[in-house]
Write a structure and sequence with these properties.
alpha+beta; 19 strands; 29% helix; 13 helices; six-stranded antiparallel beta sheet; Phosphatase 2c, domain 1; seven-stranded antiparallel beta sheet
Length: 526
């Protein structure tokens, strides 16, 4: 059917500047602002389209200007890569980070908080998280909640997730509150065994709730294969997470650390017998893996006859999992029939080979307890009752003294540094801060040197590059003590190594570093 002038005007009116603008997402991951658009007139578009439909010859009309707000309705023109007659210049989209870039990535999620350390003193907590997985599976929390007698306690948590992020996020949002619910039922003078028992019950109740909610949703009468509601309910049971929780009572200056998994707590304790300020590393947790003799004995007693198939003593893995205690991880806890149903109906993973008598994992924590030496700032006044400031409780001014500090970290940090060297690293940070020299790295340490095997990083056949953080490579360049620890764990003065570790991107970053979370808690003046 031929187009007369009146029909053509009517069609063109539909794409005039007075018509509503159509905005569509371009089929490119490149931002639209960097694309150039081919300016083709509406007449060319319409006539070309009609010609194709009717079989008539297409007439190419000259491009004309149009309003910029209509640009998004046209197919974009792709830029040429050729430069002045040369060949195309193709570059990697992955940046090689220089030191400034690597510092920015390292410090992106750092923070500091103050808290009541007891004895009238104020404490400080430094935190940093460096992701590797996308999305990140490590979570952390810092906050106050009520303890026995409804007195305020301070809590710190590190939750190292695996096989997903849902479990660690659930723990971040819920674990401290549920621990507090159990603790506040106790009197203020509750004995330590009762307090530990309450914390253990809280941990177990959270894991029981995770698995009960998942099974109830999956086996409910209205559950349909692929149900979004069921997928949501089972997610915290399908993934898994370790939990490291520190609970501090400022009234008694008592610290309790509850550990489920292989995140680790280490106390830097002031050596009172040393003439110079010196700290000793005091472990407040023990990695719960098959390499742990206590864990091996517990599991073999609970599952007799499965020693050979259940635990690999060399790797420490239990039926393939790196830890012997964890939240979630349904494949190490559920019956095979339930695991298979979750796999077939809701796309989760199947049963573990050699699984015969589940559950193999527990979320029950091991708890360590210690009294803290609270640091005293020069010129401060000590008070009784954990820092209650009133004239009746004031005591004579005490002598200034250094306080203990606590390192809480996921295994991504401890993979590269020992307890003793981590404490030494913080001790150097404290000394530099006292001297107002946090950025005083000697120029000689800023120079890259040819890597050698004896410089504590090496390449063995069939393995990824490995390295260890030791004091000869420590630098002090960060205001945040947790960031300082991670910097040195990831290379310190070995700048090429540090920049390479920070440049690694998902998914290969998982071969370089794990998600890494560190908290450094100072009890008193720093």
């Amino acid at each position: 059917m031929p187009l007369n002038n009146q029909s053509l005007k009517k069609i063109l009116g539909a794409v005039s500047s007075r018509s509503p603008t159509l905005v569509r997402r371009l089929y490119s991951s490149r931002p639209p602002s960097t694309l150039r658009y081919a300016r083709v007139s509406p007449v060319a578009t319409i006539v070309g389209g009609v010609a194709a439909v009717t079989g008539a010859a297409a007439y190419l009309l000259q491009p004309t200007a149009f309003k910029e707000e209509n640009a998004a309705i046209f197919v974009p023109q792709i830029s040429s890569l050729k430069k002045d007659g040369g060949s195309s210049n193709i570059q990697s989209p992955v940046r090689a980070l220089n030191l400034a870039d690597a510092n920015e990535v390292l410090r992106r999620e750092q923070s500091s908080k103050l808290f009541d350390a007891g004895n009238g003193q104020r404490g400080r907590c430094d935190v940093v998280r460096v992701p590797s997985n996308s999305p990140v599976e490590d979570e952390f929390v810092v906050g106050t909640q009520v303890g026995p007698g409804r007195n305020q306690w301070t809590f710190w948590g590190v939750f190292d997730g695996h096989a997903g992020w849902a479990t660690s996020v659930l723990l971040r949002e819920n674990l401290i509150s549920i621990v507090s619910d159990h603790l506040e039922e106790l009197p203020a003078n509750a004995p330590s065994p009762e307090i530990s028992s309450a914390i253990i019950k809280a941990f177990i109740s959270v894991d029981d709730s995770i698995n009960a909610a998942a099974l109830a949703a999956m086996n409910g009468p209205d559950a349909q294969p692929g149900s979004a509601e069921v997928l949501s309910a089972i997610a915290p049971a399908i993934a898994g997470s370790c939990a490291l929780l520190a609970a501090y009572d400022p009234r008694s200056t008592t610290l309790r650390v509850a550990c489920t998994g292989d995140s680790r707590a280490v106390l830097g304790r002031v050596d009172a017998d040393s003439a110079k300020p010196k700290y000793t590393a005091v472990p407040l947790s023990k990695d719960q893996t098959g390499k742990n003799d206590d864990e091996y004995a517990r599991l073999t007693a609970a599952h007799p006859g499965e020693e050979e198939t259940m635990i690999n003593r060399e790797s420490g893995r239990i039926l393939g999992l790196a830890v012997t205690r964890a939240f979630g991880d349904h494949r190490w806890k559920w019956r095979e029939s339930d695991i298979t149903e979750a796999q077939q109906r809701y796309w989760s993973s199947g049963p573990r080979p050699n699984s015969r008598t589940p559950p193999y994992l527990t979320a029950e924590p091991v708890i360590e307890e210690t009294r803290i030496n609270v640091g005293v700032k020069p010129g401060s006044t000590s008070t009784g009752g954990g820092g209650a400031n009133n004239d009746q409780q004031q005591q004579p001014q005490p002598q200034p003294q250094r306080g203990d500090f606590l390192i809480l970290a996921s295994d991504g940090f401890w993979d590269h540094i020992s307890n003793e060297d981590a404490v030494e690293c913080v001790a150097r940070w404290i000394a530099a801060k006292k001297a107002n020299n946090l950025r005083g790295t000697p120029p000689s340490l800023l120079k890259d040197k040819p890597p050698k095997r004896n410089e504590h990083w090496w390449l063995d056949e069939g393995r990824y590059v490995e390295w260890r953080a030791t004091p000869e490579y420590f630098v002090v360049e960060d205001d945040n003590a947790a960031t300082h620890l991670v910097r040195n764990a990831f290379g310190g003065s070995r700048r090429n190594l540090f920049c390479g570790v920070m440049s690694a991107y998902p998914p290969i970053s998982r071969n370089v570093r794990d998600d890494t979370t560190v908290q450094v808690v100072f009890f008193g003046d720093v």
